[in-house]
C-alpha cells in the first residue's frame, strides 16, 4: 500500500527535544518544534494546500534551484570539454525559469520511484536502508513503511532523461535525521537537537549523458516567535525583529550576488559592506557584521530575496554529523531574542538565499492566493485568520550560486560543482541546530 503523501511523517530521537515532520509530497518540511505547541516552520495548516498551486512553502527544489534564462540556448561543458546545449521552458516570468520549471504534463504515481519533476511536485518514496544506493553505508537507518516516530529516513526518486528540460537520468536520495545534542552556549542557550538534511544524486552509469546541470535546495521558511503568544502579538507574527547573521569561512569574505531586472544572476559580486543604494536589490545587506542584523532594519522595499556567496571551502568528508557540523562549517544564525529561540546552520554549500516572503500578500492575505490558511500555531497572538503573508517567515536556502555553471566569474565560487558528471555523487548537506534560552 502506498504511503499517504500528505500525512506528516514524524522524526524524533531519544535525548532530543527537537521534533520534525515531513510530507512525502514534494518532500515538504511541515514542522519543527522544541516543545508542545511550538512550530518554527511557516506555511499552511492543511498539508493538502501544498498541492494547490506552487507557493514554495518548504518543499525540495530541483533539478535546478532559483532562476535561469528560459527560451534560449544555454551552454555548459563537461569535464572532458564536451559542450552541451539546453533550452529550458518558461515558468514564473517571461524569459525566466524558476525552481525547476513548470509542472510536467506526465502524471506521477504515488508509489513509483520514477517521478517527473519539478522536484516539489514529486511523490518522494521512503526506502528501506538496504534499497538505498547512495546512503546504504551512512550509518543511518530507514524504512519504506514509516509508522510512529523514526529518527532517520531516506527518501528517493529517479528523474528521467529530459525531465524538466535537463539531460540524463538522475537518481536522487535525501537523508533526514534528528540527532540529540547536549551542547550549551552562553548566547543561544541549550541545544534541543540537530536536524541533518543531506542530498545525494548520481547520473545513470549506463546512460549516454556525461554531465548535467544540478543544484538542489530546500525552500524552507522559519518564524521562531509566531507560536509564542506574547511575542507573536507584539511582533504581529512577522520575522522583522529576528536577527540574521552570516559567518564567513576562515580567510574568506561574503559577497552579494547581483541580479538583472528579471532577477537573473549577472555574475557580478559586491561586498556586504556597501551602501544600500549600491546593490541590485537596494537595502542593507551587512549580515556578516558582529552580532548580525535585524531583518527589518534597512529592508528593501520588496523585502529580501538575495543570494550570498562565500564559495567552496575544505569540508570534512564524513557521515558523522558531529564531524561535519563543527565551528568551521557554521554559516548562518537566525535568532528571535524576544522568544529566546535560535537556529544555527552548518553547510558544505557555497552560499545561501534569504527570502523574507516579500512577494506574499500583505496581512490579512487571501488563503487562496498565498498557499492556504497559515498555521494555527502561528496565530496564537490574536492575529486574525489569514493566508501566509509578507514577512511571515524567512526562507533560508543553501546551494550553489544562481547561474553558477554559466557565468565565468562564478565557476570558481561553487558554479563548477553545479555540473553533475557521470561517476560523481552530488553531495549537499545542511545541519540545523535548534536552541532555547
UniProtKB/TrEMBL annotation:
Residues 361-386 are annotated as: Disordered. GO terms for biological process: galactose catabolic process via UDP-galactose, Leloir pathway; glucose metabolic process. Pfam families: Aldose_epim. One of its GO terms (molecular function) is carbohydrate binding. This is Aldose 1-epimerase.
Amino acid at each position: 500500500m502506498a504511503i499517504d503523501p500528505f500525512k506528516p511523517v514524524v522524526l524524533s530521537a531519544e535525548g532530543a527535544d527537537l521534533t520534525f515532520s515531513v510530507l512525502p509530497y514534494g518532500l515538504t518540511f511541515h514542522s519543527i518544534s522544541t516543545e508542545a505547541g511550538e512550530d518554527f516552520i511557516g506555511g499552511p495548516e492543511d498539508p493538502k494546500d501544498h498541492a494547490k498551486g506552487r507557493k514554495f512553502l518548504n518543499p525540495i527544489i530541483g533539478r535546478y534551484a532559483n532562476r535561469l534564462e528560459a527560451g534560449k540556448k544555454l551552454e555548459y561543458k563537461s569535464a572532458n570539454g564536451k559542450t552541451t546545449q539546453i533550452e529550458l521552458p518558461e515558468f514564473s516570468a517571461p524569459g525566466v525559469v524558476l525552481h525547476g520549471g513548470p509542472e510536467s504534463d506526465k502524471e506521477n504515481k504515488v508509489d513509483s520511484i520514477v517521478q517527473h519533476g519539478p522536484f516539489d511536485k514529486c511523490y518522494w518514496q521512503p526506502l528501506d536502508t538496504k534499497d538505498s544506493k547512495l546512503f546504504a553505508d551512512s550509518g543511518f537507518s530507514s524504512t519504506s513503511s514509516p509508522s510512529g516516530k523514526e529518527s532517520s529516513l531516506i527518501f528517493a526518486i529517479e528523474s528521467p532523461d529530459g525531465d524538466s528540460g535537463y539531460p540524463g537520468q538522475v537518481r536522487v536520495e535525501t537523508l533526514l535525521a534528528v540527532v540529540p545534542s547536549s551542547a550549551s552556549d552562553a548566547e543561544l542557550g541549550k541545544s534541543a537537537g540537530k536536524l541533518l538534511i543531506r542530498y545525494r544524486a548520481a547520473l545513470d552509469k549506463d546512460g549516454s549523458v556525461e554531465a548535467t546541470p544540478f543544484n538542489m535546495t530546500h525552500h524552507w521558511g522559519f518564524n521562531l516567535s509566531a507560536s509564542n503568544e506574547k511575542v507573536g502579538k507584539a511582533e504581529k507574527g512577522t520575522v522583522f525583529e529576528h536577527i540574521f547573521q552570516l559567518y564567513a569561512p576562515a580567510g574568506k569574505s561574503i559577497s552579494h550576488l547581483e541580479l538583472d531586472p528579471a532577477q537573473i544572476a549577472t555574475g557580478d559580486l559586491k561586498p556586504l559592506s556597501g551602501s544600500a543604494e549600491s546593490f541590485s536589490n537596494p537595502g542593507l545587506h551587512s549580515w556578516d557584521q558582529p552580532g548580525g542584523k535585524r531583518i527589518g532594519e534597512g529592508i528593501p522595499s520588496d523585502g529580501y530575496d538575495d543570494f550570498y556567496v562565500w564559495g567552496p571551502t575544505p569540508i570534512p568528508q564524513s557521515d558523522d554529523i558531529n564531524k561535519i557540523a563543527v565551528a568551521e562549517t557554521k554559516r548562518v544564525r537566525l535568532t528571535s531574542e524576544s522568544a529566546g529561540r535560535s537556529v544555527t546552520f552548518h553547510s558544505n554549500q557555497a552560499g545561501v538565499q534569504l527570502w523574507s516572503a516579500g512577494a506574499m500578500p500583505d496581512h490579512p492575505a487571501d488563503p487562496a492566493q498565498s498557499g492556504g490558511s497559515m498555521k494555527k500555531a502561528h496565530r496564537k497572538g490574536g492575529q486574525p485568520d489569514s493566508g501566509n503573508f509578507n514577512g511571515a517567515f524567512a526562507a533560508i536556502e543553501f546551494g550553489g550560486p544562481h547561474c553558477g555553471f554559466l557565468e565565468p566569474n562564478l565557476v570558481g565560487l561553487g558554479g563548477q560543482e553545479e555540473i553533475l558528471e557521470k561517476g560523481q555523487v552530488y553531495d549537499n548537506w545542511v545541519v540545523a541546530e535548534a536552541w532555547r534560552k
